[in-house]
């Protein structure tokens, strides 16, 4: 079983991050949304109605494995794909030129795709998803292989599309980027959606963490404290996970017993830490 009762919504104008381990079911989910694969049960809806072939022409899809014609020139390919989505030739040319320029490909517009770097091929693939001015964007690992400047450009493009009301769902293993960009996040594990919400909502449900900087503390100083689990214990700095009943003042007292304490504060786990906890053991 690839997917088991997966259900979530992506709202108008929302950036939705879809994350999970390799093989968790992200790509299968996207292929079902696009109609590339048929589900055994359930349905995909857009604006409250089942998705039809006509609706699918209004979706911009960026596959993880590039679906471009390698020997076709960049601009010609984008024009062709826009026309397949119903654009007139003139409108397709204008849109293709716009996205070639917007994504920093103007000087490569006449090159064959196979002659581009992998990062530039990724830019062309994004342009192919955008060229027909879609009402929905579904992107599978859009940031894979991009340099930091290209990541910034793509991030800005996705924000701009969402600002116009377009729902954007994308998968990525770059969790710091997902945390920074997304309004909400869904975490899938072994074909099941195990968490869904904003970063604040998801991390608020996680165990509280405590950061303690005590330069004179020896490794193991927090061992044995009730309700306290040591996450990391580097020289002078310790990160602890506290159970709901744990007394942080008892932790402070133990830290002060080692000498001076320069830092002592609670923090919420990052999305990366939450992901590791939630997805441990996920398999494709």
Automatic annotation (TrEMBL):
Q: Which residues form the ABC transporter domain?
A: 1-215
Q: What is this protein called?
A: ABC transporter ATP-binding protein
Alphabetized, the UniProt keywords read:
ATP-binding, Nucleotide-binding, Transport
User: What organism, scientifically named, is this protein from?
Assistant: Amycolatopsis bartoniae
Q: Which PROSITE patterns match?
A: ABC_TRANSPORTER_1, ABC_TRANSPORTER_2
Q: Which GO terms describe its molecular function?
A: ATP binding; ATP hydrolysis activity
Give the family from UniProt: Belongs to the ABC transporter superfamily.
């Amino acid at each position: 079983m690839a997917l088991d009762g997966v259900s979530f919504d992506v709202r108008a104008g929302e950036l939705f991050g879809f994350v999970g381990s390799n093989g968790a079911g992200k790509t299968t989910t996207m292929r079902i949304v696009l109609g590339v694969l048929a589900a055994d049960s359930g349905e995909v809806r857009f604006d409250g109605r089942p998705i039809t072939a006509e609706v699918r022409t209004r979706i911009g899809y960026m596959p993880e494995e590039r679906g471009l014609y390698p020997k076709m020139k960049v601009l010609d390919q984008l024009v062709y794909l826009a026309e397949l989505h119903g654009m007139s030739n003139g409108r397709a040319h204008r849109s293709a030129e716009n996205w070639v320029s917007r994504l920093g490909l103007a000087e490569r517009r006449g090159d064959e795709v196979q002659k581009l770097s992998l990062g530039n091929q990724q830019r062309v693939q994004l342009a192919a998803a955008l060229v027909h001015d879609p009402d929905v964007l579904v992107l599978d690992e859009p940031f894979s292989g991009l340099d930091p400047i290209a990541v910034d450009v793509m991030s800005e493009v996705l924000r701009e599309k969402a600002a116009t009301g377009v729902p954007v769902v994308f998968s990525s293993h770059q969790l710091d980027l997902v945390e920074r960009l997304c309004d909400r996040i869904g975490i899938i594990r072994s074909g099941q959606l195990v968490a869904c919400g904003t970063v604040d909502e998801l991390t608020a449900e996680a165990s509280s963490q405590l950061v303690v900087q005590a330069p004179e503390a020896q490794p193991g100083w927090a061992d044995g404290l009730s309700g306290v689990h040591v996450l990391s214990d580097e020289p002078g700095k310790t990160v602890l996970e506290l159970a709901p009943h744990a007394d942080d003042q008892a932790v402070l007292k133990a830290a002060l017993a080692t000498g001076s304490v320069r830092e002592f504060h609670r923090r919420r786990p990052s999305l990366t830490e939450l992901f590791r906890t939630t997805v441990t053991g996920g398999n494709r």
